[in-house]
Amino acid sequence: MSVTARFAELYGSGPDGVWAAPGRVNLIGEYTDFNDGFVMPLALPHTTVAAVSRRTDGVLRVHSADVPGGVVVLGADDLVPLTETGWPAYPAGVVWALREAGHTVPGADIHLTSTVPTGAGLSSSAALEVVTALALNDLYELGLTGPELAVLAQRAENDFVGVPCGIMDQMASACCTDGHALYLDTRDLTQRQVPFDLEAVGLQLLVVDTRVKHALGDGAYAERRAGCEAGARALGVRTLREVEYAHLPAALERLADEEEKIRRYVRHVVSDNHRVERVIALLDTDDVRAVGPVLTEGHTSLRDDLRVSCPELDLVVSSSLAAGALGARMTGGGFGGSAVVLTESADADTVTKAILESFTASGHTAPRVFPAVPSRGAHRVE
Hints:
Helix content is 40%, strand content 23%. It has helices spanning 3-11, 89-100, 124-139, 146-161, 168-175, 220-235, 248-254, 260-284, 291-306, 311-322, 348-361; strands at 17-28, 38-54, 59-64, 72-75, 108-114, 180-185, 191-195, 203-213, 327-331, 336-344, 368-371, 379-380. The strands form 2 sheets. Strands 1, 2, 3, 4, 5, 6, 7 and 12 form an 8-stranded mixed β-sheet that branches. Helix 2 (89-100) crosses helix 3, helix 3 packs across helix 4 and helix 4 packs antiparallel against helix 5 (168-175).
């Protein structure tokens, strides 16, 4: 059943419109966005689709085709941060954030469906937030830009849902374009669309969804964010973005009296910012194959300094490299989720086969492997 037909079945009439917002995969720059650093995500063809109609009575009704249960009914005037649980907190948080920012949103009927894998580190939550924000922006003629919608969606996740994420996921979902990666400076939200047509140069970027999420990840993101903030305070800077890569050895010496993990976190963030800059330089000179080893360096840092990898992610990297991939790394928050693998197109099937066989040999559930095609950001469908 189409999203519009299901909407009409749920709510008694057709929607005022249909919108879509993509998930994302991050090429390079992990745990840098909340440190005012650099990131380089690209939107995936997988999207969350929302059929939405206006309401004028202060009622918010939400329904998901992907989660068991009926329509959830909320009062737009009654939304309180940290009180909603489960997936409805995300669209509710967007309504709350828009209203807190002074925008008139008197309610809505929303029906959602998604092809963004959940729990895979591909930003299904950001896609849900951004598609809701864009639909309400259009329906109520709020006049907000993509970056402004992303900031409000981030506030919904930070303050209403209670997840201390950075801005990258929402900016990627709202602002990416076809055939490009998004080079984003999270300090001032300046962005550049970087051509990323791998097919034209005989390459593929594979996404490997390990289909696992380890409990160790619960709270680990917040702990590492707090550790990075502690490192910045100890260095006398507002954020770790202010620590230049050339000055990293001196900065680590100044942190000699801090916890060992603080030094590791600082080393990762400062070096990963530098890796983003290196990747941009390589892409600007069309030296795309040289990006591979930088990705692998990034994984080593995430594994050893930030310590957010896991056996399954490490296995993706090691097995793909052994099969001839140019580079690989975990992407997203870690402890499961997904990895990216850069490979020659001619070797993609061999690399995929090697990954699948290594998982079977290790007794892991078979991962899902698919090409990352740089796709369009949030937009109205009908």
